[in-house]
Specification:
Layout lengths: L2 E2 L6 H18 L2 E6 L6 H10 L7 E7 L4 E6 L9 H16 L3 H16 L11
Parallel strand pairs: 1-2, 2-3
Antiparallel strand pairs: 3-4
Length: about 130
Amino acid sequence: MAQVGVGEFNEAERFQIDEAIRRAELVSRFEFSVFVGRATADSRAFATQLHNSLVAPARSILILLDPASRVLEIVTGGVVRRSLTDHEVELTALQMRSSFAEGDLVGGLRRGIQMLADHARTPETLHGDTV
């Protein structure tokens, strides 16, 4: 479930982020969390601490956004890393930062969540009968 900093977004924007998370979880079968608000000086450690406090960190993806400090951190669990590469996370972060630079925080989060889910999706396999 999304954790959104108080005052960062209005109700409609929070709903859009929550909807993106629900769709991403259906697509990827991983849990997504979003934290928007103030991070500590060591934002990576703070994001990792938040990620580790989730119900199923190994199967979770956490996105931390501190708009005031212009910080974005994406933390993935061990099981997630089997399907989602560091390169795919970096590409997603680049796309998100581009949206954030244009002032579109909600759109950047939504697109980033969708991209991570699409990359993390377990590929479908087709099993054919052999004769």
